[in-house]
């Protein structure tokens, strides 16, 4: 059975596969592999109504009929256990699907399972999930269950949420693709909120074409957006943006730029605000809104909460209403200034992470001689684009070992999602990029 959905669909269209074959294949893999890596928290029974309906009518002309998926446990799946990783919501079963899940099912997708998340989306390590290729390393988070499931082949595609890098960080840690569309392109109804100002739904996969097919099913105007790429492609780089990345990361970026030049791309320098300039702005918005989104947490015994939740709640207590309002205003200014970079380029390229996937035992790393906590360091190149809302795809560009690599972010102009994915698709083919397959 092919590893990617678009290849599976070709086999279905040619009569070589049936949707039931895919369901049986993935359910067997889930029962075999998931008890060890713990990427999935609730496997939906094969008798699920939508699965049964599809298997009874395998020739339905629906665009993604038979696509097997897993969905992060912050996105409602009817009758499944969806607690958002929060102890006080344990046992919760939503009565209806989130809007994005309903749209996917209407187009023929099969939701196999719910994937593990950091509690409430607060963290970026999903510590309960074991990395399927290197157990000593983290899978990233908070969509870590979704990333691990796709990487090890429990489903070809998964949904996640991204408020500061929570799709792109685990995608990079697991050496797969992670896509965050333009803010608002995928409806957030039925999704446990974390920080509404920066919350996005994202897609994890091993194929850009698979991401494109999911976007067509979930975004009503996706096909109307411009997918054409000018020639030569104009790529923006910001040398200061990742000045503190570890040497291997900047070497990979230089190698990528060299490859782009060999494909006749034009390289232009652009300006982006530095992580140090926007960290407090992003953190004040997120901490304030996360606390408002989860009021029950403030009344819980502190010792029973994960450390990252306790830290966020404590920081939120230090943020005044005036500071929160000021951060929102500054965030809009940063958004406007960032869009200036796209006036002369088609996309901007920056690293996804400042280091190779960290070890589970790593609590701190050194970047440019300064010590940073892992939680602070891993998101330093990703959270800008949650504030600005730009579409971003994290793309593996260099392999380190099986399932471990170095990824770069390709950032597109607002609402040019189709164009960004078109370029990423051509790039993965031309450069034969090392995605975990």
Walk me through the structure:
α7 (208-218) runs antiparallel to α14, α9 (275-293) packs across α10 and α9 crosses α11. This protein is globular. β12 (392-401) and β13 (404-411) form a beta hairpin. It is built from 14 helices and 13 strands. The longest helix has 19 residues, at 19-37. An eleven-stranded mixed β-sheet has the order 1-3-2-4-6-5-12-13-9-7-8, with helices on both faces. It has a two-stranded antiparallel ribbon with strand order 10-11. It is of the alpha/beta class and 437 residues long. Helices cover 37% and strands 16% of the residues. The mean pLDDT is 92. It has helices spanning 5-13, 19-37, 49-56, 99-106, 144-152, 168-173, 208-218, 247-262, 275-293, 307-317, 321-339, 374-378, 384-388, 417-431, and strands spanning 40-43, 68-72, 110-115, 157-162, 177-180, 200-205, 234-237, 266-269, 347-351, 364-367, 370-373, 392-401, 404-411.
Structure in a nutshell:
This protein has 437 residues and is of the alpha/beta class. The chain is built from 14 helices and 13 strands. The longest helix is centred in the first third of the chain and has 19 residues, at 19-37.
Taken as a percent bin, the fraction of beta residues is: 15-25%
The strands making up the biggest β-sheet line up spatially as 1-3-2-4-6-5-12-13-9-7-8
The string of secondary-structure elements, in order, is HHEHEHEHEHEEHEHEHHHEEEHHEEH
Number of strands: 13
Count up the helices: 14
Radius of gyration using CA atoms only = 20 Å
Shape category: globular
Taking pLDDT < 50 over at least 5 consecutive residues as the criterion, the unreliable ranges are: none
Helix content: 25-40%
Largest sheet: 11 strands, mixed
Average of the residue pLDDT scores: 92
> Could you state the oligomeric state of the chains shown?
single chain
Indicate the structural class: alpha/beta
How far apart lie the N and C ends? 12 Å
């Amino acid at each position: 059975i092919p590893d990617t959905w678009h290849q599976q669909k070709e086999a279905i269209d040619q009569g070589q596969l049936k949707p039931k074959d895919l369901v049986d294949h993935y359910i067997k893999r889930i029962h075999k592999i998931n008890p060890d890596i713990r990427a999935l928290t609730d496997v939906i029974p094969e008798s699920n109504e939508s699965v049964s309906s599809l298997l009874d009518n395998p020739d339905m002309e629906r665009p993604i009929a038979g696509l097997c998926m897993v969905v992060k446990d912050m996105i409602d799946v009817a009758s499944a256990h969806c607690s958002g990783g929060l102890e006080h919501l344990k046992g919760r079963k939503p009565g209806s699907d989130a809007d994005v899940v309903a749209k996917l099912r209407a187009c023929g997708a099969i939701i196999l399972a719910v994937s593990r998340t950091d509690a409430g989306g607060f963290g970026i390590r999903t510590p309960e999930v074991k990395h399927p290729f290197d157990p000593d390393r983290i899978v990233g988070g908070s969509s870590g269950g979704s990333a691990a499931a796709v990487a090890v082949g429990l489903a070809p595609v998964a949904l996640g949420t991204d408020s500061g890098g929570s799709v792109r960080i685990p995608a990079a840690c697991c050496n797969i693709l992670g896509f965050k569309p333009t803010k608002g392109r995928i409806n957030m109804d039925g999704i446990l909120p974390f920080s509404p100002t920066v919350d996005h739904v994202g897609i994890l996969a091993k194929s850009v074409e698979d991401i494109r097919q999911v976007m067509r099913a979930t975004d009503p105007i996706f096909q109307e957006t411009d997918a054409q790429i000018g020639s030569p492609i104009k790529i923006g780089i910001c040398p200061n943006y990742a000045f503190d990345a570890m040497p291997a990361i900047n070497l990979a970026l230089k190698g990528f730029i060299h490859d782009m030049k060999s494909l006749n791309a034009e390289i232009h320098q652009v300006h982006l605000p530095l992580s140090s300039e926007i960290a407090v702005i992003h953190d004040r918005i997120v901490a304030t809104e996360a606390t408002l989104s989860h009021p029950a947490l403030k009344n819980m015994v502190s010792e029973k909460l994960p450390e990252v939740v306790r830290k966020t709640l404590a920081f939120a207590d230090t943020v005044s209403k005036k500071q929160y309002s000021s951060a929102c205003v500054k965030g809009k200014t940063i958004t406007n200034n960032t869009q200036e970079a796209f006036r002369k380029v088609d996309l901007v390229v920056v690293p996804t992470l400042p280091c190779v996937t960290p070890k589970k035992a790593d609590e701190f790393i050194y970047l440019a001689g300064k010590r940073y906590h892992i939680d602070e360091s891993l998101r330093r190149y990703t959270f800008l684009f949650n504030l600005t809302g730009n579409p971003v795809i994290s793309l593996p560009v260099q392999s380190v070992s099986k399932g471990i690599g170095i990824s770069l972010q390709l950032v597109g102009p607002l609402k040019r999602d189709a164009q960004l994915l078109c370029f990423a698709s051509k790039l993965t083919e031309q450069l034969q990029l090392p995605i975990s397959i």
